[in-house]
Every structure is written in C-alpha cells, then in structure tokens.
Amino acid sequence: MEYISTRGKIDSVGFIDAILMGLADDGGLLVPRHIPALSADTLKKWETLSYSELALEIFSLYIDGEIPREDLKKLVDDSYATFRDPEVTPVRRINDRLHVLELFHGPTFAFKDIALQFLGNLYSYVSRKNNSIIHILGATSGDTGASAIEGVRGKEGIRICILHPHQKVSKVQELQMTTVDDANVLNLSVHGTFDNCQRIIKELFADVSFKHKYHLRAINSINIARILAQTVYYFYAYFQLARKGETRTINFSVPTGNFGDIFAGYLAKRMGLPIGKLILATNENNILERFVKEGIYEPGEFRGTYSPSMDIQVASNFERYLYYLSGEDASAVSGLMSGFKAEGKIVIPADKLQQVQADFVAYGVHNDECLATIGTYYDDTNYLLDPHTACGVAATDKLAGDGEVTVALSTAHPAKFDESIQLVGITQTYPAQIEALFDKPQHQTIVDGTNEAIAEQVVKFYEAEA
Predict the structure, then answer these.
(1) Average pLDDT per run of 10 along the chain, which is 466 residues long?
(2) Where in 191-292 does DSSP place strands (E)?
(3) Under a CB-based contact definition with an 8 Å cutoff, are residues 164 and 189 in contact?
(4) For this protein, what is the EC number (predicted)?
(5) So which residues are the catalytic ones?
(6) Least CB-packed of 197, 303, 362, 421 within 10 Å?
(7) Which residues pair with 23 in a beta bridge?
(8) What CATH number has the domain spanning 91-109+225-423?
(9) Crossing angle, helix 112-130 and helix 69-80, to 10 degrees?
C-alpha cells in the first residue's frame, strides 16, 4: 500500500515511511492511495474473529506485506494483551435502542490506548529493525498524552515529549502523564489552550529541516497508523451485535473534537461496513457541528467545558475528510487549506454540503445537557457515563431514528473526569490504578505557549540523549 499527501506535493511512501513521517513533508496529511473495498463474504468471514485476529486482518490490508505477517501478529497480540477485558472493546446494552462501546479498558482507561499501544510497539519494532532514533513529539487535550507515554515509556531508542494545556485537563489526566518519572519522558505544561499546543506541534513538524535533524515522529492522530487502528473497533462492535442477531440499521455516535475517531468510522464505512448514521457529537466548541449543518468551518470562541478532551476549535484530521469531499483532488485541498490559513475559515458550496450531510449528522451538546444526560442514564439504567460519552448519548437521543440502534463510543472511564461526575451528585469509586496516582510526585515543566519556548525544550531534551 502506498500513502500520499492530501496536498499532493510529495512522492508516495510505504507504510513504515508514512508512520515515521507523521505529518506529510508538504504540510498535508497522509492517506492510503486507495481504500480497500470489502465484500459481504469477507465481512461474514470476519464476524467470528477475536479482536486481535480482526486487527491483524485490517492492518494487513494497509501494510501489504511491508511487515512480515508473523511480526505483525506479535505486535498486535502484544498491544492488546495489556487490556483488562478479554473482548478488548466490549459492547454493553443500555436499552433496546442504545449500546455503549467501551473503549476504556486499556492501561490508561481511555480509547487512545487502542491505537497508541499498537503505535508504541510499532515504533519500538521499527527502531530495532532499522537501528534508528525515534523522538516522539505530541500534544494532548488530556488522554493522548497518557496513552502515548504508557505506550513507549522505558523503551530503548525512543524518547517522548508531550505538550498539554496548563490546568486545562482533568486532574487524573494530568497525574497519569506527570507521575511518570522515566528518563525518556518529558511533560510540558503549556500556557494556553490545546489548540495552541496542536498548532505548535504542526508548525514544528512543518519545519522539515528541524523535523529531520531531531528525528521527530508524530503520536497524534495526524499519524495515519492511529486512524487505521481505530477503524478496527467499528468493525468489531458491528460484529458483536451481528452475532447477537441484531438486524436493524446500526448507527455510531462519536464524541469528537479532533475528527480522528469519527474519521476512522467514515473510513470503515467506505471500506464496506454497513453503517447507518455517523453521528458527530461535539460540545460547546462546536465548529464541526456548524460545518455539517451550514458548510462553514471557522473557529469560534474557545469554551472550557465538562468534556475537556473535546475542547478543540481546529480539528487536526479534518483535512483528511476534505480530501475525500473534494473527490481526492489534492490541488483543491491545498487551495482550501491556504485559504483557511489566510482567512481563518472554509466555506463549501451547496453541492458539497449535501455530501457532508449524507456522510454525517451532528449535534453540539451544552454543559447542562451533558450533566443532565449523565444523571438521567445513571438513575434510569445504573450506568455511569463519562462526560464525553454523555455527549455521544445526548446526540443519539436527538438524532437517531425510530427502528434504529445506535452504538455510542465511550471514550474514557468516568473516573478520569470526577470533577464533572461530582457536579451531578454522584460518588464513584476510583479503580486502584487511578487511586494510586494521587500519592505520587509529579514531573512537568511549565512553559510559555510559543514555538520558540517549546523548540528550546525539545532541543534540550533530545540533545541530552547524545
């Protein structure tokens, strides 16, 4: 499989070069040259596979022999052996029309573990095979950082630097990152928002000479391996319901801020998974909702919410969707992104908006509605939703039709966001792994939110290895 840039200004690369490149050297995002099309027979054969077996089949389509199958199988098996549930991503029935896909059974209790356990092992594999240096640089709105650190901490040949917005993640998210004291980990707490952190990361990666000099690799969802790993659980959730005899149309409701998780669902649907609606759930930072409803992509005023991992105004994966919306016309995407940089917004014509609305429906959940959803479902079903999952469930209640069943993606364990849960008047018990964090010392460096301040810390950290 070859990978190309959404902006079309680099030569195609193979899978390993794609995951090492992260952000394409022309500033675009990497996508597969073609999306594999799956037959109904293939889907039927896959229905009985375990999670790891299914992941192996899907990864094989996109890696196309570049990693020997036995090596790939070991990477997959090792990655998902760390999960607490034997199903890896179990589906829980809430009522006749709603199921929850629990994506929080990995080491850090967040859906990011599913991709980052694999990507961490993959980076380690490449480092050993190529005798190469892997310097990971990433930004997080909360969960990516902890998952990425957990995926590579202590691994030879790899160092990781993670930026998070200072005092704008939950306490548990902060502790999961900053209580790690491994020599190959640096946490930078950045004055500003996640959008500031993400912009700095993308601009440092866009400086190709800096990127190559310091062997920078991406862990954020700009890395195509992240997206591919996330497509697996859409298939697996669908198959879990199919094995139970579910024949109704199946929707997926996805809480999203960076557009990566729902883009993985879009990719699964294009591969042939018979998904009904893709419900895009946002919070009050609702740039993506407005795009789906009006065809206007324009950052608004940042709002701090009870679902902080979605407090994002500029979605880093949005460009991948624009590529397919533009008929895979890289020059059109380049024009749109240049216009966005110059004018701060993208406006699409009516015919393109019709396509967007065929691909997605969207709903922005306000803070009070988020908390009310947590309380209502806890009272009615005794199931505790984290605030991000609550946004997905609230969107389901608004947008799912009669006779349909919806799988809402549960992106994190509620213990990671106890500040929000307490506002509903619910007392929860922390898992032991999370409870233990509160007694550990923290290790982080607080820095200004400028390219220069971050670059200085990055250079100091990575050069210290030499």
Answers:
(1) 96 94 92 96 97 98 94 97 96 96 96 93 90 88 86 87 92 94 93 91 90 86 92 98 92 94 97 97 94 95 88 90 97 96 95 97 97 97 96 96 94 93 95 94 94 93 76
(2) 216-218, 250-255, 275-282
(3) yes
(4) 4.2.3.1
(5) 112
(6) 303
(7) 29
(8) 3.40.50.1100
(9) 140
